[in-house]
Design brief:
The complex is a heterodimer of chains A (about 400) and B (about 300). Chain A has about 400 residues and is α/β, with parallel strands linked by helices. Chain A is built from 19 helices and 16 strands. Chain A has helices at about 20-30, 35-40, 70-80, 100-110, 125-130, 135, 140-155, 170-185, 200-220, 230-235, 255-260, 265-270, 275, 280-285, 295-300, 325-330, 335-340, 350-360, 380-390; strands spanning about 5-20, 45-55, 60-65, 85-90, 95, 110-115, 190-195, 220-225, 240-245, 245-250, 285, 290, 310-315, 315-325, 365-370, 375-380. By secondary structure, chain B is mostly helical. Chain B has helices at about 5-15, 30-75, 75-90, 95-110, 115-145, 145-160, 165-175, 180-200, 205-215, 220-250, 250-255, 260-270, 275-300. Classes of the chains: A alpha/beta (about 400), B mainly alpha (about 300). Chains A and B meet through helix 4, strand 6 and helix 6 of A and helix 9 and helix 10 of B. The structure holds adenosine-5'-diphosphate and magnesium ion.
């Protein structure tokens, strides 16, 4: 994760209290009264207390916590499905608490899309009409949005299901429709409230993989809610842990695993098989340093002097690893291909358990490439070992 | 000190103890006064506004007469073909069409065609009116708890108050005829469509509605694009009940001059014509069954995609 991405969403001092007179109870909550005390004394439920966080453009930000910890309540503040009792919410520098009802509708239409735990599809609209819902209520012409919706259905793997109705689809398929509906609006921010929690484990894992792959191309800002640390670790660039409406830790997956802030987080973390929970993206070092070469001659000429070895690419993509030693000793006329070490490449979305054997089999870092075959980073064996060794 | 309350009790007891054995009701004279005041106030009201209220309902009366004439004066086989055509369009079921055809042929054969057409016309108009008035009220109720708490007791009264009681002011105001009949039928039949519209909208899946909001739907888009379509099965059940209740009012309405299948029934009661009563009664039953089956089949056909959904 590069830390210099710009801030997209800012939440400051957010409180949510459910009940008749939340404002009367607020001072008490601010003073630190516990959720139980507040409920017993005033009959009000503390949903969220003093939430402060910033979300950066292009990251997957996961909010994790047990059921009832306030995750759904929190995510519903981002598009103001719920108004806070106190606090500031800024999106792209704009204070969304100040929006008029009309502006709020425009904001929801253009800025954010949402995916729901139980899909939230419209049973009376067929699949393509569901996917195009966001565009259709914006007033876009049907002839304009149907092709887009069809395209997105194809992207999520549901080509041919256009005329079906949600009740005719399986849970996994319905959630793909939900995802396509969210992507179809072109909104920059995706809110996903336990989007995969209602799915079977296998389908769920498939959907996670699909989301990571889509994200590689889309670079949306995704706020993802889950009660499952495995899922949080797999998807999140950063993870916020929520407990009883309070944030207890915000950090990268590695932070959460290796440096849990308190016993609550520790209990979560100790329960996790790291090799199965973490993906390459949580461990890799982002980098695009590579060598573009078709012949030994080119490779020699462009070999970076400060490196021991490089990943060699040509217009067909990744080819292999070339060491400095080779670069100085090779014969100019010999074919480059024969000289390269066949180090396999990995993908961001791969789970660590899949790449451990690959990493053990070679003394080099593994290159991380994306769907288009471009280099996005490197996976260092030492870092891998660090993450996997129990703390 | 301790004796004081007992003393007080005794004094009260001795002054007048009749309230223990007999309800301390208001005097007959007072009651009469109240009745006279209210009755005369209402009579003044109806004298002052009766005409304008009648004028207000005039277009409806014209429509009623026009529609009834249309059904009666068009040759019977055209009407029958139109009815069967409508039934087919709504249900796509040949069996139902056949049933409808047979029922109407029997009705015609037993000489009840004209009365049935009159009843059909008034029931149709009453149902359309109930839907047009009832659904918006139901929507209002679903949108506001305050509205609901006001309207619910009113509906309870409308459904339990004997129809004859609210016929009195209607007749005082508008006399005897079609319009008072329509008003009485609508008052009696409208509660189910209101109640079930409210219920249906309140039961709409919360997440689906939230999804609409999250994608930027306006209140109107939510209402017509999500709430009403998803509440439709429930609303249809309400409409169905409304039609049934309207049919049940046919006989009562005939007491204030609504012509149709109700009048022969009324005549049979006073003159003890058993067969006449039975035949007309059966015709009403046939109409009820036809309305019921057709509206239910139509509803099922229109909602076939919603099965297995939480909104049931
Ligand atoms: N509309 C509401 N009225 C009262 N209490 C609520 C409401 N919504 C949520 N809560 C309470 O707020 C807390 C957090 O709920 P929620 O955000 O749904 O948790 P999660 O999504 O993490 O399971 C719970 O204690 C819940 O009972
Ligand atoms: Mg939740």
């Amino acid at each position: 994760m590069d830390n210099n991405r710009e801030t997209l969403i800012e939440i400051e001092g957010l409180y949510q209290i459910f009940g008749e007179e939340p404002n009367d109870v607020l001072p008490q909550v601010k003073a630190g009264a516990s959720k139980e005390d507040v409920l017993a004394e005033t009959g009000h439920t503390v949903g969220l207390r003093d939430i402060n966080l910033t979300i950066k453009r292009g990251e997957i930000f996961v909010i994790m916590g047990l059921s009832g910890s306030g995750k759904s309540t929190l995510i519903r503040h981002f598009n103001r499905l719920i108004d806070p009792t106190a606090g500031k919410i800024k999106v792209d520098g704009e204070n969304i608490m100040a929006l008029s009802p009309k502006e709020l509708i425009t904001f929801r239409r253009h800025k954010m899309a949402m995916v729901f735990q139980h899909f939230g599809l419209m049973p009376h609209r067929n699949v393509v009409d569901n996917v195009g819902y966001g565009l259709s209520i914006k007033g876009e012409k049907k002839t304009d949005w149907v092709p887009k919706a069809t395209q997105w259905l194809d992207t999520v793997g549901l080509a041919g299901y256009e005329e079906q109705y949600p009740s005719q689809l399986s849970g996994g398929q319905q959630q793909r429709v939900g995802l396509a509906r969210a992507l179809c609006t072109d909104a920059e921010i995706l809110l996903m409230d336990e989007a995969f929690s209602a799915l079977d484990p296998l389908i769920r894992s498939e959907m996670q993989e699909q989301l990571i792959e889509l994200q590689e191309n889309l670079q949306k800002t995704i706020i993802f809610i889950t009660h499952d640390l495995d899922e949080a670790l797999r998807l999140g660039d950063r993870i916020a842990v929520l407990k009883d409406g309070k944030l207890v830790q915000i950090g990268t997956p590695v932070d959460i695993m290796l440096r849990p802030a308190d016993d609550y987080v520790k209990a979560f973390a100790s329960d996790v098989n790291r090799a199965r929970a973490l993906s390459v993206q949580t461990v890799m070092t982002p980098s695009t340093e590579k060598l573009d070469a078709n012949t030994v001659k080119e490779a020699k000429a462009n070999f970076p002097q400060d490196k021991e070895y490089v990943f060699v690419f040509n217009n067909e993509g990744y080819q292999g690893v070339l060491t400095k030693e080779q670069a100085t000793t090779l014969d100019d006329e010999s074919p480059l291909k024969d000289a390269l070490h066949p180090v396999p490449s990995v993908r961001k979305a791969n789970l660590l358990q899949k790449v451990i054997p690959l990493s053990l089999n070679t003394r080099f870092d593994l290159p991380v490439v994306n769907k288009a075959g471009e280099l996005t980073g490197r996976l260092e064996a030492r870092k891998l070992a660090d993450v996997l060794s129990p703390s | 000190m301790a004796r004081y309350p007992a003393l007080l009790f005794e004094t009260l007891f001795m002054i007048d103890s009749s309230w223990l054995t007999e309800f301390p009701d208001m005097s007959r004279r007072d009651l009469l006064a109240i009745r006279q005041t209210l009755d005369s106030a209402y009579r003044t009201f109806s004298r002052a506004y009766g005409q304008s209220i009648e004028d207000f309902f005039n277009p409806l009366l014209h429509f009623l007469i026009w529609f009834e004439d249309l059904l009666i004066q068009t040759p019977w086989w055209i009407v029958l073909a139109a009815i069967v055509g409508l039934v087919y369009a709504a249900t796509r079921s040949w069996r139902l069409c056949l049933g409808v055809l047979a029922s109407f042929l029997a009705i015609g054969y037993f000489g009840m065609w004209e009365d049935t057409m009159r009843t059909l016309s008034i029931i149709t108009v009453c149902t359309i009116l109930s839907i047009c008035i009832g659904i918006p009220i139901g929507i209002l109720m679903a949108g506001s708890d305050r509205a609901r708490s006001i309207i619910t007791p009113l509906l309870d009264i409308m459904q339990t108050m004997p129809a004859f009681v609210y016929l009195i002011p209607v007749v005082m105001l508008l006399g005897i005829g079609k319009i008072p009949g329509v008003i009485a039928v609508v008052i009696y039949a409208i509660p189910p469509v209101i109640r079930l519209t409210n219920l249906g909208i309140r039961l709409v899946n919360k997440e689906t509605l939230e999804a609409a909001t999250a994608y930027g739907a306006t209140a109107t888009q939510r209402l017509f694009g999500v709430q009403i379509p998803l509440a439709m099965p429930t609303i249809m059940a309400g409409i169905n009940q409304t039609i049934m209740m309207a049919l049940a009012m046919v006989v009562v309405a005939s007491m204030i001059g609504v012509k149709g299948l109700g009048q022969p029934v009324l005549k049979s009661i006073t003159n003890q014509y058993f067969t006449l009563g039975l035949l007309n009664g059966l015709a009403i039953v046939a109409l009820a069954i036809i309305f019921d089956r057709v509206s239910q089949t139509y509803a099922k056909r229109a909602q076939r995609h919603m099965e297995g959904n939480d909104n049931g």
